[in-house]
Amino acid sequence: MSDMLSPSLLFAIGLFAALWLLAGLWAVGRGIAMQRRSAFVAGQSERLASLVEASPQLPVIVRGDWRIEASERLGRWLGLERGPRNFDELRGIDTGFDPAGHDALRQAIIGAQRGAKPFTLSIRPQGSARTIVIHGAAAPQAVGGPGSVLLWLSDATDGQQALARAQGERDEAMAAFEALSGLIEAAPFPMWFRDTSLQLALVNGAYVRAVEAASATVVIGEGIELCEPIAGISAAEAAEQARVDGVAQTRTIPVTIEGERRIMRVVDIPLAPEGGRTIGIAGYAIDIQELESERGAHRRFADTQRDLLDRLSAAVAQFGPDQGLDFANQPFRRLFALEVDVIAEAPPFARLLDAWREGGRTPEVRDYPMWRQAHVDWFARADAAEEDWLLRDGTHLRVVAQPTPDGGLLLIAEDRTEQVQLASTRDTLLRVRTATFDNLFEAIAVFAPDGRLHLWNQRFRRLWGVDEGTLAAHPRVDVLMGGLADRLAKPNQISIVQEVIRAATLERTQRVGEVRFADGRHFDFASIPLPDGNALLIMLDVSDSRRMESALRERNEALEAADKVKTAFLSRMSYELRTPLTSIGGFGQMLQAGYVGKLAEQQQAYVDAIMDSVGVLGRQIDNVLDLAQGEAGTLAIERAAVDVWKLLDKALGDAQGLATSEKIELVGNLSGNLGSIEGDAPRLSRLVAGLLDNAIRFTAPTRRSGGRVLLHAEGDAKNVEIVVSDNGPGMPDAVAAVTKGQQAATSSGGIGLALARQLVAAHGGTMEVMSEKGQGTMVRVSLPRGA
């Protein structure tokens, strides 16, 4: 049988076996490949399942028969015990969807099944705080088969809470924005906002009123700017500068507000949220017109105050809160030797103390650092500090340091050196006054305005016999004087003393009085009001004066009787002399007139000599009468216009004969402006004639040659001055005594000068006589033009 197997059969069997082997090898390779693919697919499925499980969204397939394919997570989301397998299992009693939400989801799925319409629902499971958002649409055929719907469920709890918070924050932001907008709108000053193009995008009501526009829309639409260009810079350019710099820009410029020019502080603020890109420029303008006015008024007040401080005698300096010197008036600069450039540097107070110490302008102290710190601490004091500084040069300073509310210091230094010296002088004067009071001859007491005894001297105490203790108690005047009435001869006169003191203290009037003590002494007293309100009582012992007065009164009465006898004698004698003289003159005139026949030349000369003597004697008698009337006060002067030049010229002519006979040169120097005066012409003529006669007669005995008498006269609008001078021997002592008003006279010259003085005085004028032995005499008479 074996032999029957042919090679072809063997070949066929071998080929079949080879093919079978190849098929087996292919099947094994194919199985291995499929196994590998199956493992890859399984891995991919696991990874997809893991991704789906980790995804925030949960896929759910609802098949046409309402079976559900979903992860177990769905049950946990819905609060179910296990994952639902049927749509109805999505609704529970206290878990799952509530009936309304379950029905709404069913209707949405039915709509998706019928019209392939996608939907979105937001449902909150019962008894849970979750919010589940469901997105549904028809599922692909390969996924769920016909009628299946694919649902994507997502837990929107955190998102909803975040949305709620965002909505709350938005509401708060909107409320804040509304409040801010209301605040901006209600702001009393203009505010605005510029967008990125620097155009006005928002303005408030104050802005609209300031530019006098109809509305904010008109302002924004027309771009009405509040601030006009200043120095070539517009409002938009100022805002651009703020945006470029990234910081707020402030300007103080004049702005027209509601038609009135005001000073405004304009601020542009770039707005860049969290350092990002600038989204716009906000701005506002504050009216500082009143502030600038007050600031200007404050500056003017400060300048005025400093000008006033410069005029004070006290030294004043102001230090700021930094303890630097702000101001020092001129007395302070002089007192502490401060230069203007030093003040400009505003040196601190401590450094000034060091400089003053070097210059000897601080007192010498044992521990200067401690003293210095104590004075620097003046700035922190709550009250003022006062000190007395005694400097090395003897200057006494009163220093007052007053802290100011701003933390500075006001330093006042007063130079009291003169006051201290005056106080020392006053103390010395008081001691001198006390010693003087105690050693005065008068008794002195000072009473206060309330009537109490204030001061007294020892003579006052001894006068009234009062002990020192009683006076030291400063008794009232009524109490003091009431106990001293027995010292007076008439005790009731003590009331006069009290009344005089009361008049000086209360009525401020001066009173005088006189009292006599029981021992016979007489005292004059007076009360004098003093400037300080006190009254000074002075008592003077006039006992000796009273005795002398009595003796003088008796003598005066005797002299008056003798004077009356003398006056009567002169009057009688003048009358007795004038009567025969008149007869002699009358008969002489008859002889001169030739009533008894023509006289021989020698006889005529005798008659002329008789008439000259009659004239001289007549004048002497008139002088004696006038002198007697002048001494008795009965000299009558007639007032009439008198030509002074003619009167003096006639007097010169009348005296020329006597001067020639005595060989005396008589010179007249009469001014042309003498004019006239009101007076008694005959008596003025006798006045001048008597002066010339005296001058010629006193000069002649010693000046036989070279004798000279000068009559000089000049006048002004009020007076006429007449001067008679000579170069004679001067006036004798007796005559000089008469010119000084004494009653004795030893010559006609004395009587003439005494009469001349009386005549001048009767005319309201003055007469001055100057004489020096061997040099001559000058008489100057000044007469007023009017009465």
What is shown here, in short?
With 787 residues, the chain is an alpha+beta fold.
The largest sheet is: 5 strands, antiparallel
Structural class, judged by helices and strands?
alpha+beta
Q: What is the number of beta strands? A: 27
Chain-averaged pLDDT: 79
Strand order of the largest sheet: 2-1-5-4-3
Taken together, the total number of domains comes to 6
What is the H level of CATH, i.e. the homologous superfamily of the largest domain?
Histidine kinase-like ATPase, C-terminal domain
CATH topology of the largest domain: Heat Shock Protein 90
The top-level CATH class of the largest domain is Alpha Beta
What is the CATH architecture assignment of the largest domain? 2-Layer Sandwich
The portion of residues assigned to helices is 40-55%
- Low-confidence stretches at least 5 residues in length (pLDDT < 50)? 741-750
Distance between the termini: 217 Å
What's the gyration radius in Å?
A: 70 Å
Percentage of residues in strands = 15-25%
Broad shape: elongated
Pfam families: HATPase_c, HisKA, PAS_7
Organism: Sphingopyxis witflariensis
Enzyme class: transferase
Keywords: Kinase, Phosphoprotein, Transferase, Two-component regulatory system
